[in-house]
Amino acid sequence: MKKPLTAVLLILCACADMPTRGSGPFAGDMLLGASMERALITQSTLFPYHFQADAAELNELGRRDLLVLAAHLREHAGALSVRRGGATAELHEARVRAVLAALETAGVPRDAVALRDGLPGGDGTPSARIVEVLGRPLTLAGAGASSASQAGTPEIIK
Amino acid sequence: MTPRRSARSRRLAALLLPLLLGCSAPSYGSADDWADAGGRAPESAALHSMARLYAAQGRDADAEATLRALLAREPAFLPGWEELARLYVRRELLDGAVAALELGLQEAPDDPVLLNDVGLCRLLQRDLPAAERAFVHASASAPDDARPRSNLALVLALQGRDEEALAVWQQVLPLAQARANLDLVTAARAR
Fold this sequence. Notes:
Chain A is an alpha+beta fold. Chain A has helices at 2-15, 27-43, 60-75, 89-105; strands at residues 45-46, 78-83, 113-117, 128-133. The radius of gyration of chain A is 21 Å and the shape is globular. Chain B has 2 domains: 44-109, Serine Threonine Protein Phosphatase 5, Tetratricopeptide repeat (Alpha Horseshoe), CATH 1.25.40.10; 111-191, Alpha Horseshoe (Serine Threonine Protein Phosphatase 5, Tetratricopeptide repeat). Chain B is flat and about 75 Å long.
């Protein structure tokens, strides 16, 4: 029974209209999409281009890429770097907080997130804050890492 | 073949025959159909093809008039806005191209092709922040499409944001090619 059905399905598919603009996704697109997601996860980094210019809010691409990372971090503990680029220290901290909020919205528990400094750097030097998603909630805060406070707000290391 | 299997096959054939018939090549109709079609306006796809032919022949004014007529009738026909913008870019009317694309985006605000084209026009206008915004939006609208991401990487590299550019190129290219692209832009920037 399976063979005739397969043959008929093939005939029916061949009868369909030629693909038109925006009628995908096609297999190649899906493969490329999967490879891009892997690259995003490998990088696990949010850059200034993921944010609105001179603002702390993630832009549409930032929100989309963060969802990919959050889906991974929900299942696998890991770190997420937030690069500072040319942003001021205040703007960078605001961006980190925006990322924490977005992670929580995306289902990564806030009490499983810690922050630490990445590469050191002053003005004009690349630096990053690292958002660490732990396998389980933190109970201790040590040097170089901070846990969620009692109130559920993460402490940011200066 | 057993009688049971034979009956099953007949039932399957009866079920699928109408589907296959529905799939057959379109009928070209009777002579009356042809006569009735005489007063009918050409379809948008046909006008679009005609405009592209005019453009290929260098008859830009005819191409533009055809596209304008098409888009006045069916503004949601997005390839028409793309073609009109392409026509303006060829004539170095970048403001006109952006205006055409933005009119198209009023119909489909998240269309990745139009957004990518806006980014390219902004790039040609050397408005790099605007190009970046357009490519960011296009990349978010078509996450499986490498083109807007590659263009975003180019704009970042042109702004001297090399670390970001390399990271974006690496999302769509092997590292060696990503580095080669960045080296090309860096060399161009230095000139």
